[in-house]
Amino acid sequence: MKYHLTQFRVRYSETDQMRVVYHGNYAQYFEVGRVEWLRNKGVSYKWMEENNIMLPVVSLSINYKKSAFYDDQLTLKTILKKQSTVKIEFDYELYNEQQELLTTGNSILVFVNMKTGKPIAPPQYILDLLNKIE
Amino acid sequence: MKYHLTQFRVRYSETDQMRVVYHGNYAQYFEVGRVEWLRNKGVSYKWMEENNIMLPVVSLSINYKKSAFYDDQLTLKTILKKQSTVKIEFDYELYNEQQELLTTGNSILVFVNMKTGKPIAPPQYILDLLNKIE
Amino acid sequence: MKYHLTQFRVRYSETDQMRVVYHGNYAQYFEVGRVEWLRNKGVSYKWMEENNIMLPVVSLSINYKKSAFYDDQLTLKTILKKQSTVKIEFDYELYNEQQELLTTGNSILVFVNMKTGKPIAPPQYILDLLNKIE
Amino acid sequence: MKYHLTQFRVRYSETDQMRVVYHGNYAQYFEVGRVEWLRNKGVSYKWMEENNIMLPVVSLSINYKKSAFYDDQLTLKTILKKQSTVKIEFDYELYNEQQELLTTGNSILVFVNMKTGKPIAPPQYILDLLNKIE
């Protein structure tokens, strides 16, 4: 399966005075989504960093269609779009409890060696986990 | 002049454990940039909201080229890209003290009547201020 | 029962360059704790605000004993300490998966009428819910 | 002089749906205050971390008296309360443009060796800078 669903509730601290989720906070939600996507594949992002591989974001785009509100129980669909040797690209779709599509997003991340700061291909067993068919 | 320069310093709270500015926090920086762009034109965004016009973001994109670090004194160039009756679009370029281009971004905002929640054309005097030649 | 346990995982965005949870972010955690404490009592804080009662924080204190780290699964114990007609006071204890006590906190909140901005006693049925014996 | 004044403007991202600064965000403001207090003494906190000394917060308390609002130009007074060999304690007073006292705070920080994770006395020249009479 190429996607993973994550659920979480909007915190008060995530709202702004428009009485909706602050538009910049969706970046945090997407990050939670891809970390859980990875965990679901058997890959802990924490473990990756402990093994000197990090995944910085090189591009992010977000389209805001409808607002998310305080205390909403949201469902984030994280979809693997594309994966090459050094890059990984995700699409995101965020839904509220009424199954309304609130926000879509996309981000590209690069595998980077934390010691050199240079892009690297991740170890084969990580690639195997990412590409395994469920 | 179609652009405005804003300077600010990276706060500790804005970093993450990669020891750089958290990628989601650039949305806040861009917001500061366009609010100061507006102020420089003679338009207070706070005043706009008090007069029932808000400017929610409908799309945001960010490209991360180089990292910003704690305590860096950054310069944000906010550029009016396009403005129609109900929309306003900005480009952003973020530089560090060495004049390196760290991040570029784009966001589109829509003028919305806070009472109806519907897009509206802003009052003529706001449009006049936004379009005045300096 | 005077306390409620809430679990959540530390997000990447919540860390800072000390490689621990940023000390200011515990305020968000405590807020999640007391909202879930209320929900467990049958009171939705969202519903309270929709009915013009808000609960702003008037004091907050936090003691930091051990660090919380990225991806830690934390357990927050939210304890009702004291409740008078217009105030409500909570203690907080935050534990990691090894049952180590990381942080303790306390906050006092006041019931405020959102229209007048003045402290008020909440409606009797809210007080009844808050005080019911389980 | 034992205190330092810092000015900054409230960002939109710092508000919540009560239409005031989110109560957890004052921790960030106080941090900006003490970093500028240090800088004013000739000590760069960034430099300290580069030299393996960090200053984690071990306790924080905040009293909220009046709200700070979006776009307010705030003045933070950071006051050295006490300094021992390994600890440093600050009081904070936050004022708006009408000179109203909005918030008071206190935090205690400990000098820690980043390599060992243990409290240490900072080098003498840092102590000299911190204690110099102006």
Short description:
Four copies of one chain form a homotetramer. Chain A is an alpha+beta fold and 134 residues long.
Estimate the global geometry of chain A from the Cα principal axes: elongated
User: What is the element string of chain A, with H for helices and E for strands?
Assistant: EHHEEEEEEH
The secondary structure category of chain A is alpha+beta
CATH evolutionary superfamily of chain A = Hotdog Thioesterase
Which chains have the largest interface? A-B, 21 and 21 residues
Integer-rounded radius of gyration of chain A: 16 Å
Going by CATH, the architecture of chain A would be: Roll
CATH class of chain A: Alpha Beta
Question: Spatial order of the strands in the main sheet of chain A?
Answer: 1-4-5-6-3
Record field, number of beta strands of chain A:
7
Helix content of chain A: 10-25%
Note the gap between the termini of chain A.
6 Å
